[in-house]
Design brief:
heterodimer; A: about 450 residues; alpha/beta; Alkaline Phosphatase, subunit A; 8-stranded mixed β-sheet; two-stranded antiparallel sheet; about 15% strand; B: alpha+beta; 7-stranded antiparallel β-sheet; 34 helices; about 40% helix
Chain lengths: ~450, ~1000
């Protein structure tokens, strides 16, 4: 174990050249940011982009059903931000799907998600999330970076920076995407996985489950693996001669990066090659190789986790149900229910759930008021997430929204609270992982955030 | 009590950083967080005794000064800073404070706000003075090869030509170097390099930056910058034109284009956004950008509260924002349709304007005369038309094709009765179902850039008057739902044949009638492959439908085969049809409209199709009907529209060729309120007028509201010391890798005291005297400091590891665009151009897959545009080209004045595997074999000269010869792989050399392009 740490330190120190002094000190030794014993070693974030309706997933609101069709009481909505429903009448819209209780813990989950229900005893549902940004782009930004100011590092970058990766062949932070079939695939910008002012090596690297797994990872047509190796060897020999002549440490780094690139050229395609997975595993996830689905990405996430990637973020788009939420949720459940549960089960079976934090949720929720007669608008005051593994208390529900599912009233959890908790489970004190920038001690949690003790095991 | 020989404590150098880091948070300029009513940033306050008679600082008497007592205090309850602040002073820092108080507690104003202090000396003497303080000396001049490569890369972003290098080496005259410098400074390439850096600062992008991130017209502004640098426009004029070009007396086109700077901020078209929130965001962006680029101030920090470290108030933020309140804009900026992007300035040449005016006049005249001579719409005519319509006589008859084939390899499959999965948008919602194809042809498999579809039909007996091409939109088509790629569809020509004879068409009409969405239908019939019927973006719900009117009716007996040829040879790659149907109509001409929509509407037999909706309404006597639509339709049916169609088409292409740019249009200033904590919902804050930060003074405007021009004038006035310092500092970084003060966009108290303030101020004072950028640049590159060797001495590394004092030059990896330009230049691929629209280099497929509104794919440019300098690459802000991004080019979503310089394995993957570098290696090899000499050693020298400015050493030749030989054997044994490697990229393959030799040579040039030295400025 000691050896691995030394290798990592040496690797980090070799690739330090060219960075600002501020970050330099912080790069030496990932253990600087482990402030206490970690429960989780890695995070798999199943990011449901578009804003899943909490009212048709994890937050059952019978009182809202009773108010269906009646005007939404002013006391809830007065002075609050509102998105596309600006200027429109606000009418209560009862839950469009039924809920059921699952597992020994009896957690209430929408019955369209029975597979997630089957792992209810492993998950912790947080019903009192809230955020500040009501449009997709800035809402993603705050969920990913803890700030609405563009240019801050994403949570994956912070974690890769603070803890390093446990692999030398793969990036510490990987992002994958899948699209839903409902037609509301909101755009997601590359800055959502940017490293901000942290060294660029910590940025998220997007892996594709269809086509080229990582951009430019495949050799050019006509160039075999041997040929590529010979070319890289030649380049590095020449670089080494230059180094001998002028001793520029950057050259050593570049030599190391070319060697790493060559390793990635086989480790990455190998990783996304699901053909070696047993049929029963593929069936458990409901994945088909090369189909680019959320299910395939979940399986790939497990493989990435096994190989030491620190932060794996899966975006599944198309939750933006401004219209047709009833059918829309049904369609989404078919796309994510089985694979989500399969991932948790798979991790558990491999003994990895205890040190893998799994997170499920999006950038905001949806309004208890109807939009267009059959949909829900963006909603920020209360929505649901669930988490599993990595030190999270299993089989419990935490926090609550008011009777109509409008605002988080019991144990509200802000984005910063959520980030603080995630870092805590990884062994990091969110107050103490900072980088000096513009005179501030910049951190993921901005200037707020408290660890949510109630959901810790 | 000054230790013998010790210099007095410098406030700015030693005390202010300690206070700014440790004390100002509670005892600084921010009254909101001030503790114990005590402030230490202002001397009068710091020496004031409190009610108990104790003063924080008693100058000269450390033992009586509270701050000294508190920092040395043993008890955690009394020590400063308190343990809760999580900051500790070192013993050395405490001693420095004590000594400073003992020496009289002399305060200094923050260095960046003090007047410029010009010192006696040149760059070299001032640098030497600093070096001398630590016992270092400047290095000797770099060798000539290194020097010319260094200065050429720095001034132009291109490597020197072999001829240039040789000429410099053999020029023994005194001013050999100066001649090179002057040649480079006058070149267009230099203007391009300076532009590159300026575009980072002004956050220039080609797309809107939020949400759909669609293209907006900004590139003429880049031309403005290029021309400004080319003619060495003085920086004060440059500043005024960008901040207030539209307000300058006698403002011409150039000034107005310069003022587009104010519109380069990101904008959003997301439905449901709060307009006031986004107007606040746009204003904030301008404050951040202007203060960073010109003032080196982080005024952006004061959006929500007074600045914690610098004397900038929240009020100052909003007063600065107020300058820009006279710019016409909306919170939601539409990104399509006639109102896209708000105010736009059209930039026709005089010829274009004249031509356009004349065409418009002719169109108007023609329309008027047609309307005059048009037959009246009488009842009889209406009845006949309605009867025909309701009898289904105007309906399109969908054809069931017999065969469908493609020219370039796409697979075309016909679904007549066979069922197929469909996922169209209907009513704004994506529907998915399975249904019989009913004549649907689907393209799949190979996806060539251009295609020609040939389809045969065997219509039933009839007399046909129009052919219809219906493009069927489907979510599976990545190009806006209609095309197999790109962001558009382009049908360059439609032809039809019967019995070997070509059918003549007289008119083309489509159902996509928004000119901002569509290129003319006529282009599909004009016999011109460079024009095409194109759909760029369109309303979801429609299938774009092209109706082609036959010149004379076609009579069929049921035995004839019609062959329809659909050519898609447009510029956009893969802008080919994904799914389509063909239809015929007989009798009165049928209006083009989607057959599926028609079928939906016709469920009860009442709407069989073939007429535009308004006409149907009018014929049926609908009260809300538009009577004019009947006249228009009659004209469409009966008049000869060919001339009008021709003129409209000419007009379209002429207008499309006239550049447009975002315009700063002045309107009555909107009110600007201070937003408490930056909260746009809180309208209780005071209204402010445009003003510069209170700390910096007050603009004299004799009571009139200050304008952007006043702001610009103040920024470049002699009384403002910040601007010159900031520009000099940024420009210094271009040549040394780091500024004299490290943080380029912040010269405030949190930043770094310049390592050589004398030098910075002297250069700044000089720059300010005439604002001549080129003269400043010249003085830097002519200095010995710039020209010295970058080989470090042991002492220099020990005493000055980061090379701040410059006892040696630095080795720097070149910027992203330059990495690209070096490869293209060395290989001979680089296109010569200056200015012009943005271009699109090759990019991996599906890279833009996460975008939407509209869903689209990327289409690389063609021909020479593919090989333009990196500066001209289309800057897609939310998904910057991955090769550029990998080499640290910023997305420019925000103003970025500094680039990080990273070194990652992804960079290796780009240089090895990005097709442009592979193509460059191949073209480089072609050229090497043709021009490099007869022996491989000579060829290696030739290639090294072009890429590195030197010859290859014997050892280097050994390595590369080995590589060549090894690969030659491989390619001889596998010629197909040689061919594969050699056909990467669009440049045609030269057939002069044996493929295996050329491929093996390409592996050498590829290795050369991957060397560390190639992308390093030494």
């Amino acid at each position: 174990m000691q050896e691995v740490n030394l290798k990592r330190r040496a690797f980090l120190s070799k690739s330090c050249a060219g960075f600002g002094l501020a970050a330099l000190g912080n790069l030496m030794g990932a253990s600087d940011y482990r402030h206490h014993a970690a429960k989780a070693k890695r995070v798999i974030f199943l990011y449901q982009a578009g804003g899943p309706s909490h009212l048709e997933t994890f937050d059952s609101k019978p009182k809202l059903a009773a108010m269906h069709g009646k005007p939404m009481p002013d006391s809830f909505t007065k002075g609050q931000q509102i998105a596309q429903l600006q200027g429109k009448p606000l009418i209560c819209y009862g839950p469009q799907q039924n809920f059921a209780r699952f597992g020994k813990s009896g957690q209430e989950i929408c019955e369209l998600f029975p597979k997630i229900g089957s792992v209810a005893d492993d998950i912790c549902i947080v019903k009192s999330m809230w955020t500040e940004q009501i449009n997709h782009d800035p809402a993603h930004t705050i969920m990913n970076t803890g700030s609405i100011i563009t240019g801050r590092p994403s949570m994956g970058s912070w974690i890769a920076y603070g803890l390093g990766a446990e692999t030398e062949d793969l990036p510490g932070f990987v992002v994958m995407m899948s699209s839903g079939r409902g037609g509301q695939n909101q755009p997601i910008a590359a800055r959502q996985w940017s490293a901000g002012m942290l060294p660029s090596k910590f940025q998220g690297v997007k892996f594709n489950s269809v086509g080229d797994p990582v951009l430019y990872v495949r050799n050019p047509p006509g160039v075999t693996r041997d040929m590529q190796k010979d070319s890289i060897d030649a380049v590095n020999r020449l670089n080494q001669k230059t180094y001998a002549a002028i001793e520029d440490p950057e050259i050593q780094t570049r030599i190391a990066q070319y060697e790493m690139a060559f390793r990635m050229q086989s480790s990455v395609p190998d990783l996304v090659d699901m053909s070696k997975e047993p049929t029963n595993v593929m069936e458990m996830y409901g994945a088909k190789p090369g189909d680019g689905s959320f299910a395939s990405n979940c399986l790939l996430a497990r493989r990435l986790a096994q190989r030491g990637v620190r932060f794996i973020q899966l975006y599944h788009r198309d939750w933006d149900h401004h219209g047709g939420v009833k059918d829309g949720i049904a369609a989404k459940s078919q796309e994510v229910d089985q694979a989500t549960a399969a991932l948790i089960t798979d991790l558990k079976q491999r003994g990895m759930l205890d040190d893998t934090l799994v997170v499920w949720g999006g950038e905001f929720g949806r309004t208890p008021m109807s939009q267009g007669g059959d949909g829900r608008d963006h909603h920020i005051k209360g929505f649901s997430y669930f988490m599993a593994g990595g030190g999270i208390k299993p089989g419990v529900t935490y926090g609550a929204t008011d009777d109509l599912g409008y605002a988080a009233v019991e144990n509200p959890v802000s984005v910063h609270d959520f980030h603080a908790t995630m870092l805590h489970l990884l062994g990091v004190n969110h107050l103490r992982m900072t980088v000096k920038y513009q005179g501030l001690d910049v951190r993921l949690t901005g200037v707020s955030g408290e660890v949510v003790k109630g959901i810790l095991a | 009590m000054c230790a013998y020989g010790q210099k007095p404590v410098s406030f700015n150098r030693e005390i202010r950083p300690i206070m700014a880091d440790t004390c100002f948070r509670c005892h600084g300029p921010d009254s909101g967080s001030r503790m114990a009513g005590l402030r230490l940033d202002v001397r009068e306050e710091a020496i004031k005794p409190n009610r108990a008679g104790r003063a924080p600082i008693v100058p000269g008497k450390p033992d009586e000064s509270q701050i000294v007592m508190r920092v040395f205090h043993a008890s955690p309850a009394r020590v400063m800073p308190p343990p809760s602040a999580h900051k500790e002073l070192t013993a050395a820092q405490k001693e420095t404070i004590r000594r400073w108080v003992a020496e009289g507690a002399r305060y200094e104003g923050h260095w960046a706000y003090e007047p410029l202090k010009k010192a006696d000396g040149s760059i070299d003497t001032l640098v030497a003075a600093k070096l001398g303080e630590v016992g270092l000396k400047r290095a000797a001049e770099a060798d000539r090869r290194t020097l010319i490569r260094r200065v050429t890369l720095d001034l132009t972003g291109l490597p020197p030509t072999s001829a240039g290098v040789e000429a410099f080496l053999s020029d023994r005259s005194q001013d050999a170097y100066a001649k090179v410098v002057d040649r480079l400074l006058a070149s267009k390439a230099h203007a391009e390099k300076m532009t590159m850096h300026w575009l980072d600062a002004v956050r220039y992008g080609d797309t809107s930056g939020f949400h759909g991130d669609n293209l907006y017209p900004s590139w003429p502004y880049r031309d403005y910058v290029l021309n400004s640098f080319l003619k060495n426009k003085s920086f004060d004029v440059f500043t005024r034109e960008q901040l207030a070009g539209d307000l300058l007396p006698g403002a011409g086109v150039e000034q107005k284009v310069g003022a587009a700077f104010n519109r380069l901020n990101r904008v959003s078209a997301e439905g449901g956004l709060q307009p006031k929130e986004y107007l606040a965001k746009y204003g904030a962006d301008r404050v951040r950008t202007v203060s960073a680029v010109w003032l080196g101030a982080t005024l952006g920090c004061a959006e929500c509260h007074d600045h914690k470290f610098d004397p900038l108030l929240a009020r100052d933020f909003y007063s600065m924002k107020a300058f820009f309140a006279d710019i016409k804009e909306t919170g939601l900026v539409p990104d399509r349709g006639a109102k896209a992007w708000g105010s736009l300035l059209s930039l026709p040449t005089p010829e274009q304007k004249q031509k356009l005016d004349s065409i418009v006049a002719r169109i108007d005249a023609l329309k008027a005369s047609m309307e005059k001579t048009a037959p009246k719409v009488d009842e009889a005519w209406k009845q006949r038309l309605l009867a025909d319509y309701e009898a289904g006589k105007l309906a399109w008859k969908i054809q069931q094709p017999l065969s469908a084939s493609s020219k370039n390899g796409a697979t075309l499959k016909i679904y007549n009765t066979e069922e197929v999965d469909m996922s169209p948008y209907i009513g704004g919602i994506l529907r998915q179902f399975r249904a019989p194809g009913n004549g649907l042809v689907i393209a799949s498999g190979l996806n060539p850039d251009n295609e020609t579809y040939t389809v045969t039909l065997k219509p039933s007996a009839g007399t046909w008057t129009s052919l219809g091409l219906e493009v069927v939109q489907d979510d599976n088509n990545p190009g806006n739902g209609v095309a197999r790629g790109a962001d558009r569809l382009c049908v360059t020509e439609v032809e039809a044949m019967v019995g070997g004879k070509k059918l003549a068409f007289s008119l083309a009409t489509s159902n996509v009638s928004d000119p901002t969405w569509e290129q003319p239908a006529r282009s599909a019939l004009d016999g011109n492959s460079s024009t095409g019927w194109g759909v760029v973006t369109y309303g979801e719900n429609k299938n774009p439908f092209l109706a082609l009117r036959l010149k004379s009716p076609l009579v069929t007996t049921g035995k004839e085969t019609i062959t329809v040829v659909i050519r898609q040879d447009g510029e956009a790659r893969k802008a080919t049809i994904g799914r389509f149907r063909l239809a015929l109509s007989s009798g009165t001409y049928s209006w083009p409209e989607g057959t599926e929509i028609t079928a939906q509407r016709n469920k009860n037999g009442k709407n069989p199709g073939g007429l535009p909706d308004p006409v149907v309404k009018a014929l049926r006597g609908d009260k809300e009907a538009d009577a004019k639509s009947l006249e228009q339709h009659r004209l469409w049916l009966e008049a000869d529209l060919s001339e009008l169609a021709r003129l409209e088409q000419e007009r379209y292409y002429l207008e499309a060729s006239i550049p447009k740019v975002l315009e700063t249009e002045r309107v009555e200033p909107a009110e600007t309120r201070i937003l408490p904590r930056g909260n746009f919902l809180d309208e209780t804050g005071a209204i402010v007028e445009p003003a510069i930060p209170v700390k910096f003074g007050k603009l004299e405007t004799a009571g009139r509201r200050a304008t952007r021009l006043d702001l610009a004038n103040w920024i470049v006035s002699k009384d403002n010391p910040m601007t010159a310092r900031v520009q000099v500092n940024r420009i210094w970084r271009l040549f040394f890798g780091v500024g004299l003060s490290k943080v380029l966009d912040d010269l405030g108290s949190q930043s770094e005291l310049p390592v050589n303030l004398d030098l910075l101020d002297t250069l700044a004072a000089d720059f300010q005297s005439d604002w001549d950028v080129r003269r400043l640049v010249r003085s830097i590159v002519m200095s010995d400091t710039y020209r010295q060797s970058s080989a470090p001495s042991r002492q220099s590394v020990e005493k000055d590891p980061e090379n701040r004092l410059l006892a040696r030059q630095s080795r720097i990896r070149v910027d992203a665009e330059v990495v690209h330009d070096i490869a293209l230049s060395a290989s001979g691929l680089l296109t010569e151009r200056f200015g012009g629209p943005s271009v699109r280099p090759y990019q991996p497929e599906g890279y833009l897959g996460a975008l939407n509104f509209p869903k689209r794919d990327y289409s690389a440019s063609r021909g020479k545009d593919l090989y333009a300098r990196g500066l001209y690459a289309q800057w897609q802000r939310t998904f910057l080209h991955p090769s550029l991004m990998t080499f640290d080019a910023p997305s420019r979503e925000e103003c970025t004045v500094n680039r990080v310089n990273s070194n990652t394995p992804l960079q290796a993957l780009v240089l090895l595997n990005d097709p442009i570098y592979v193509e460059a290696a191949r073209v480089f090899a072609q050229k090497m074999l043709a021009e490099g000499g007869k022996t491989i050693d000579a060829q290696l020298d030739w290639a090294f000269s072009r890429a590195l400015g030197r010859l290859a050493s014997p050892e280097e030749k050994v390595v590369l010869r080995e590589l060549y030989t090894k690969n030659l054997e491989r390619f001889k044994g596998d010629p197909s792989s040689a061919r594969q490697l050699l056909t990467v990229g669009d440049t045609p393959l030269s057939v002069k050399t044996k493929p295996e030799e050329l491929a093996a040579a390409a592996t050498i040039t590829r290795a050369i392009l991957n060397l560390h030295e190639t992308i390093t400025r030494n």
